[in-house]
Design a protein that fits this description.
Layout lengths: L1 H16 L107 E7 L6 E7 L7 E7 L7 E4 L2 E4 L7 E7 L6 E11 L4 E11 L1
Parallel strand pairs: 1-8
Antiparallel strand pairs: 2-6, 3-5, 3-7, 4-6, 7-8
């Protein structure tokens, strides 16, 4: 019996050791502060009725006369009824009708004096034709694509070591840009009764691009 009472006391003591302790938060109060709130209200009789409006409005400003928020949404063309030509400026009312425009890009009309036509060591193309020696000659048209990124003036002629039977037209002009329309050159060979192998090198100078195009012609005159 004494053993049972001793064990029971030990168990009760152990259980009380693990019993959670209740924490009580002490109330605090702020001394010297008014926590009743702020009873300030904006003055509704003011002109703008708001407290975040700056003082940059003039005294005679009328909010009812302000532009509508949709004004200007169509851009400058809205007031022109869709006409993007814009309003006429004084002195420029007839621009495009009787105005004289000065300047522009001038194109050369002849080969500059002293220009040399020296063929490249490796031609850009080679052509072989036959022509009768007793005929009035023959003309071949070749399409030349410009290698330049912009429009370029060209000057075309056969090199000095070419046979005099070769001629080319046009000799002066302007090439389209790369991947644009090709320039058509008409190459004429007039043997004037001379038979044999006639050779010539067509050189197309592009001085602005600092480049040239060379075509080799081999004509069998019989």
């Amino acid at each position: 019996m004494k053993l049972f009472i001793t064990v029971l006391i030990a168990v009760l003591c152990t259980a009380s050791a693990f019993q959670p302790t209740a924490f009580v938060r002490k109330s605090t109060s702020l001394q010297g502060f008014d926590l009743s709130g702020n009873d300030w209200k904006p003055d509704g009789d003011k002109q703008m009725g708001s407290t975040d409006v700056g003082d940059y409005f003039p005294e005679d400003w009328d909010p009812n006369a302000a532009p509508d928020f949709t004004e200007g949404m169509g851009g400058s063309s809205a007031m022109l009824g869709g006409d993007r030509g814009g309003p006429e400026l004084p002195g420029m009312e007839n621009l495009g009708a009787d105005a004289v425009l000065m300047g522009g890009i001038e194109q050369s009309s002849e080969i500059p004096a002293g220009m040399e036509f020296i063929p490249a060591s490796v031609p850009d193309g080679e052509y072989t034709f036959n022509v009768a020696a007793s005929s009035e000659g023959q003309v071949w048209d070749i399409d030349v694509q410009s290698p330049c990124m912009t429009f370029e003036d060209f000057f075309a002629a056969f090199s000095n070591d070419s046979h005099p039977a070769f001629k080319v037209e046009p000799q002066v002009g302007r090439m389209d840009r790369r991947n644009g329309d090709p320039t058509i050159f008409s190459v004429r060979c007039t043997p004037n009764g001379q038979a044999g192998d006639l050779t010539g090198s067509l050189v197309i100078n592009l001085p602005e691009d600092n480049s040239k195009i060379t075509y080799r012609f081999n004509v069998k005159s019989f």
